[in-house]
Every structure is written in structure tokens, then in C-alpha cells.
Amino acid sequence: SQQGEEDPQALSIQEGENATMNCSYKTSINNLQWYRQNSGRGLVHLILIRSNEREKHSGRLRVTLDTSKKSSSLLITASRAADTASYFCAIRDTGGGNKLTFGTGTQLKVEL
Amino acid sequence: GAVVSQHPSRVICKSGTSVKIECRSLDFQATTMFWYRQFPKQSLMLMATSNEGSKATYEQGVEKDKFLINHASLTLSTLTVTSAHPEDSSFYICSAPPGGCCQETQYFGPGTRLLVL
Fold it and tell me: Could you give the C-alpha distances from A4 to A7, A43, B8, B110, in angstroms and in order?
């Protein structure tokens, strides 16, 4: 399967702490994207990092990409209760088209 | 920003009936749309790629006669679950890249929750 693997599967932290989620994949990629999903809802695009980029920031989000290790990490700094959601990485491989293959997801719970 | 809608948001049906789910791009044209299925507490699995004016491309293991896809216009794709059974109960999500198949960003619909009794 080309599906990405994410760890941890579940993460519970206190508000104000940082949350780190990791994603590993198996193929060559054009880009890797991170999405957020609130329970029972659609997906919200968070950030995209291209294969020639190593790090990207967006607000409290920091994404890294290591193509040699085929892995990426998403860091949420100073977490808030509203960050509670499932987070998925998705890869667009080099095979053409715009298909996204999603990782297994990390369920983040931020407690007050 | 670009918006993708789905209708209905939730549907309950009896086993053996067919259910149609619509996916619309509201402020952009989408020559390609993607249909995903998500079981509880699991990831999204791509079912098929819907192409305007041509046949859909199905992923391995997805029955094309079971999940009929029609990309009727540049803003509408429909997924029909034929002769639905309880195991088809799932969350169905569509997405569309504005500007054509190979744009980097995709916009996702809010999803349709299907429950087959």
C-alpha cells in the first residue's frame, strides 16, 4: 500500500503545549500536504510542502520534509482546545495527475 | 476561497435502494473531481477520479457498477451507490482542484454520511 503512516495514532496534550505529528511514506513525491478534520466534517487544507522544500511555516504550524527518509512532521505550537481534531498527511506522488494518498491520521486532543 | 458543496449531508436508506450524492464546485470549474470514502476513525481512501466528459477512473478494488459516477458538467459530479447494503455505510467526501487536474491544491466538500439499514 502507498498509504502514508502517521504516528502517533492519538495524542493528548494540555493547552499551551506543542503537538508533533509524524508522517512516513513510500513513494517519490511532488508534494506533501497536511489536512485537518473535525469530527464528522470535511477536510481543511493546512499547509503544502514541495519535494524541494525542507521546512515551511504558517502561523502556529511548522512542517518539515525529509525526502531522504521519506518523512514529514507537523508541529503545532502553543496548542489550543480548538486545535482538537484529526490531522492527516497526504502525498501527491510523481505518477502524474493530482491524486492524493492520505496517511492514517493522528487524533489530537487538546485539554484545558 | 474556492468552495465545494455536497448534497445531501446525511442520508439514511434501506438496504437495496440506490443513493445519489452530488458534489458541486460553487465558484470554479472542475474538470476533475475525486471521490473518497472514510470509515469511522480511519483515513480517506480514494475511490475514483471523476472526469468531465469522459469515464471515471476507479481505484483497484472499487466496483464501477456499484459506485456509478457521472461528471455531468464542469461544476457537478454525482456518485450513485447502487443497491446499497449496510457495509456501504460510510462517510463519502469529494474534492476538486480548481483550475484542472494537476493544480496542487484541492478543495474538499463537507462530506455525506450514508447509513444503510
Answer: 10, 17, 30, 23
